[in-house]
Amino acid sequence: MKTTGNIFGSNHFNTIGSWLKKEFGCRVMKLSLDAGFTCPNRDGSKGTGGCIFCSEDGAGHYASDIPGQIRLLHNKWPQGSYIAYFQSHTNTYAPTETLRSLFDQALSQPGVVGLAVATRPDCLPEDVLDLLSEYERRTFLWVELGLQTIHDSTAQRLNRCYPLAVFDQAMAALSARNIRTVVHLILGLPWETREMMLQSADYVGALHPFGVKLHMLHVMRNTALADLYQLRFSENAGADFYWHIFEQKEYIDLIVDVLERLPQDITIHRVTGDAPPEELLAPLWSTDKRSVLNGIQKEFKRRDSWQGRSCTVP
Fold first, then answer.
1. Which of 46-60, 135-149, 156-170 has the lowest mean pLDDT?
2. CA gap 140, 299 in Å, rounded
3. How far is residue 192 CA from its own chain's centroid?
4. Cis, bond preceding 283 (omega within 30 deg of 0)
5. How far apart are CA 312 and CA 314, in angstroms?
6. How would you write 198-253 as a 3-class SS string?
7. How confident is the model at residue 229 (pLDDT cuts 50, 70, 90)?
8. Strands 112-119, 280-282: parallel, antiparallel or unpaired by DSSP?
9. H or E stretch at 167
10. In angstroms, rounded to a whole number, what is the distance separating the alpha carbons of residues 273 and 290?
11. CB-based burial, 222-260: b 16+ in 10 Å, e otherwise
């Protein structure tokens, strides 16, 4: 989708926070939830150990109960609303009656106006798709898919346990049911060049999901990735091993390049990330989230640029 100018003002890109405020007329905040799910490449049905970058809590570092989160947020934003975000592990990997009970319980909480459900593309059987379609008609909903990369060679090494074709099928099935999708991409994966990362961004942009979530790669303690991090300069890493770990300025430049290539109407759900400092091995500069966010805005301003400026998607 070619564009003619910056429609986002000082933000320079289409943040999900701004989009939700326009949609609901108030600030809308996500409540991060851990519903106790596991994952098919943890329980042995497809693999064990999970993706090599995933810690035991499955990205649910800051998840807690809904009432407690609402109490804290209500004190600061008393007029705000909430989206119940099922974040940890694979949140459609359960019988539909279990999912229905959890989703209904979340929607029954005061101020909750919608659901966000993070899952894997290979965990969307027909009965779950039908259930999600029901909630799409009842409430505000998006489904997050952990793609991370379009390159199957990388995905195999990450122990992702599904090929790109499965992601494509899931996107088509969700789109056919008018269910909003948010796609996760990780920048800085081992074995990936900068060009490969841009190819992933271009591929996802051409699919036109509702949103994109861009993660920097966090190397967390007690993960398979941490073991690889220790071996990265060793001959045991393999002759074809490649892993460039970004400095902050490099990461900022890449994020802006990616956002310039994405269509303007795609909502951006994340451009950096949070990790518990005591569990983080690298990059240590990522703990200064404010510096990263400010750096992205400064780089957009320096370039006189915005999301979609270099987009070639029709």
1. 46-60
2. 34
3. 18
4. yes
5. 6
6. HHHHHHHHHHCCCEEEEEECCEECCCHHHHHHHHCCCHHHCCCCCCCCCCHHHHHH
7. very high
8. unpaired
9. helix 164-176
10. 11
11. ebebbebbeeeeeeebeeebebeebebeebbbbbbbbbb
Q: Which residue has the tokens 């074995």?
A: 191
How confident is the model at residue 182, as a pLDDT? 98
Q: Is the dihedral of CA 126, 209, 101, 35 positive or negative?
A: positive
Q: Quick one: the chain helix, strand, coil %, rounded to 5?
A: 40, 15, 40
User: Which of 98, 28, 108 is CA-nearest to residue 67?
Assistant: 108
- Strand-pairing partners, residue 114, are 83, 140
Give the dihedral sign, CA 150/151/155/156.
positive
What is the reported pLDDT for 63?
A: 55
What are the tens digits of pLDDT across the range 1-46?
A: 556 689 999 999 999 999 999 999 999 999 999 999 999 989 999 9
Q: Edge to edge, what strands does the sheet with 81-86 contain?
A: 28-33, 81-86, 112-119, 140-148, 180-187, 211-216, 267-270
User: Residue 145 class from Cβ within 10 Å (0-12 exposed, 13-18 middle, 19+ buried)?
Assistant: buried
- Alpha helix (H) residue ranges in 108-163: 126-138, 152-158
- CA-to-CA distance for 235 and 253, rounded, in angstroms? 31
